[in-house]
Amino acid sequence: MTEVRFNSVFDIIGPVMIGPSSSHTAGAARIGRVARNIFGEQPEKVTIYLYGSFAKTYHGHGTDMALVGGILGMNPDDADLRNSLKIAYEKGIKVGFVPKNDPTEHPNTTKIVMKNDNHQLTIVGESIGGGNIRVVEIDGFKVSLSMSRPTYVIIQRDVPGVVASVTDLLNREHINISTMTVRRNGKGSQAMMIIEVDEIRHSIESELKELPNILSARYFE
Amino acid sequence: MFYSIKELIEQSKAYPSIADLMIATEIDNTGRNKQEIRRLMERNLDAMEESISKGVAGVKSLTGLTGGEAKKMADYLRAGRFLSGDLVMTAVRNAIAVNEVNAGMGLICATPTAGSAGVLAGVLFAIRDRLNLSHDQQVDFLFTAGAFGLVIGNNAGIAGAEGGCQEEVGSASAMAAAAAVLASGGNVEQASYAVAITLQNLMGLICDPVAGLVEIPCVKRNAMGASQAMVSADMALAGLTSVIPTDEVIEAVRRVGEQMPSAFKETAEGGMATTPTALRLKEEIWGNKDK
What we know:
The complex is a heterodimer.
Chain A lengths: L15 E3 L3 H18 L5 E7 H6 L5 H9 L12 H7 L3 E6 L8 E8 L4 E10 L2 E7 L2 E5 L5 E7 L4 H11 L4 E8 L5 E8 L7 H6 L3 E7 L1
Helix pairs in contact in A: 1-3
Chain B lengths: L4 H8 L5 H13 L3 H24 L11 H11 L6 H18 L3 E3 L7 H11 L7 H21 L4 H4 L1 H19 L4 H15 L15 H20 L8 H14 L16 H15 L1
């Protein structure tokens, strides 16, 4: 076996979702929702690049509706997914789709670029089957996030002591870290921390946000 | 955690059933407690049953390409004159129902995917009454299927885009066959043979959705997956085995998936998707949007 991709019985049985395709609809909605959550607010402009099978069949599978639904905060079982393009239009969100021919590692890959007046985020996600996803790139940083276990995504100023203050807080709350990735754009600018933790327990998202030099903190279950 | 069918069988000996091993593994992997895990699975079960009722009552897809055929099967079943057995026909009706609901952007439970959601639900709700399965036994059926599905998913795949329909409806059918064997009183070795028989028979099946939609041939492929699962389960229960060990069959599915050209992996560039009629339908449905 090359790689353990599925760890939970619910990766195989489930999710309960709106059809028609777990990889092209449910997985797409999940990628959109993760992108929106990391971005932290409603974007004004979204450009969605589609690769491989996503590029060839996104109309037919409702991938466009699902990605935008996710970006609007919808879950894969939300009956409003099919109306998402209209809802985004009504909210004044500009959405563009760009099918690409470039080869990618996984056939169902999308790159989502979200913009507001003050910030921009680029996220690359793969839909690996059965509604399961992997986030492989955030703002040019290579990552590998399954989003199948509880995860904190933290954006901070790149100054000394921030990582320690976050791990101190996790320690005080008896939260065990399973993986941790720290990346930055450049010295002294912004950095990103992605922390996967072992157990589902109450989120300390708000406590994290209170720490000095933390710009945003998001929690995913 | 178990990473092969061999390990699954070995580890299951320490538990009353495969379902119990699956739940214990899930507790280990996620930290969720047993009650919560069972509750989540019950929600999946409810969604499956509801999608069958909805599909049998009659639905239409957004494009109108599919829909209404589960209802035809139900009428045919009620008329009482059919060639194959009533349980196989019921499984077929159920599978079509779920996938018609799926194509209509309705609510379904992906098992393992949405495109193959009809197979497991189709089989379970066909054999439930014959085997007098209690609510708990129905939930266990899903944990059992999930255990076999995890091994197949981690060693081959579950997405048509990655390895063709053999990995999508094929996985679903193999999972359903294994769970049906155990629900019917067979042992884990027989369940494993049912997986091997099913995957051998569906090996090489391509993913070729007409107009890129999960409708043609997907809906009827689910009917085929459900009927193959029933037949494989019966063969295994009758004592038929597989000379090639199940783990080697799964490995062969992975290899075939890798060797399969991308035209046959959900890109709508081959098979049924490039027949003249399919190309015409594609133009009618998406022609304007693409321009």
